[in-house]
Design brief:
The chain is an alpha/beta fold. The protein has helices spanning 12-23, 90-103, 195-204, 308-323, 332-348, 363-374, 381-396, and strands at 5-8, 29-31, 110-111, 114-122, 125-132, 138-143, 145-148, 170-173, 187-191, 210-214, 229-232, 235-239, 242-245, 250-252, 255-258, 276-278, 281-283, 285-286, 290-291, 297-299, 405-410, 413-418, 421-426. It has three domains: 5-155 and 262-379, FAD/NAD(P)-binding domain; 164-258, FAD/NAD(P)-binding domain (3-Layer(bba) Sandwich); 382-426, no CATH class. The strands form seven sheets. It has a five-stranded parallel beta sheet, with helices on one face. Strand 18 (285-286) and strand 19 (290-291) form a beta hairpin.
Amino acid sequence: MKARVCVVGAGASGLCAAKHLLGTGITPVVLERATTLGGTWVYTETTGYDAHGLPIHTSMYKSLRTNLPKEIMGFPDFPVPENNKSYLPAKDMLAFLQLYSDKHDVTRHIKFNHFVKLIKPRGDLWDVHYQNLIDDEEIVEEFDYVMICNGHYNTPFIPDVRGMHTFKGDVIHSHDYRVPELFTDKKVLVIGAGPSGMDIALEICSVTKRVLLSHHLKEKPKSIFPKNLVQKPDIRELNENRVIFTDGTCEEIDVVFFCTGYLYNFPFLDSTCGVTVEQNYVQPLYKHLVNIEHPTMCFIGIPYYVCAFSMFDLQVRYYIKAMQGHFKLPDKQQMYDANKAEFEDRTMRGYTKRQAHLMGPVQENYYKSLADEADTQSLPSVVTMIRDESSLRFLHNLQHYRDDVYKIIDDKTYEIISNGRTDIISY
């Protein structure tokens, strides 16, 4: 009998999981609470809660363009269609995911408007409780495997800032940002200089009186910002309508705007699943992927600062090979030992617990470890090369780095056209 597999979510990782399952002859049940596929790539002007009283999933703002070039945004066997630009608007990426899903016959297997309420192990099986949001029917279905693909850009992380309770202005998280007009004639404190923090801080400068960009980047961005944007250090405290920074400077502000990232959140997992999240460290996962307590459950897409769609593809291929017995996962103790060793190594290199799933400079090692263990195709070095190059250009030329155009030549070589100059980069 073929395995019964539940895929939670029809964003990029869920579509990838379903595509590969179908390719091996397994017909998955894909549960998606929204009316359309695409997950975080779906734009809506609505914030807060949807028509069913559920929190709005997407964090997409209206002007968003990819912060990585399309040449490394596709799947290994399904690239983003040719375009004379490398950085694309969100609607193009959503159209790409729709194309990917349709081409691989995934779309017709998605149960839209189906909300997962509870996942609970029962012996070697899984009971998945979900609700049809259209007719309120409650369904319980039994599965052999569960692949969690619900994304991690939907539950805002808001750090504890001293004096926050005294602040008299507005407070917003980037999850609820859509258009800059919200900040017209305001003095805005932006906390965080990740991709969304930098992008949005620059965008709102067009309507604000003043933007204070607070961050603790080790390498200060060399980007030239508008005159009404000032970079500041971390915050010491808030006090009614003022912010005091760690360098002792103080400014009046109208809005605190958190661009501080997101929390991993799996509200549908019963405690008996054995999964916990502490300081954004999801445990116990082998290879950031396999639930050590119940290896018939996996999580696709946990690592960040990666080449996301390509990584999803590799993780899915790894897990399906294990599922089908092409290789054997280590036993429970070996997986725990490997997990502990990796965390200790990260700690020695200065990573915090909150950075337990951050890849960045070590992403290629992660890809290789998955590929080697599963005896499957890894990701070409050119993918991480372009990602690293693009990330540097983002930091130091924020206003113009999206004008660059990339072309992959082979697995270790790419071309970049920037400011009319063409360079060939080899590994």
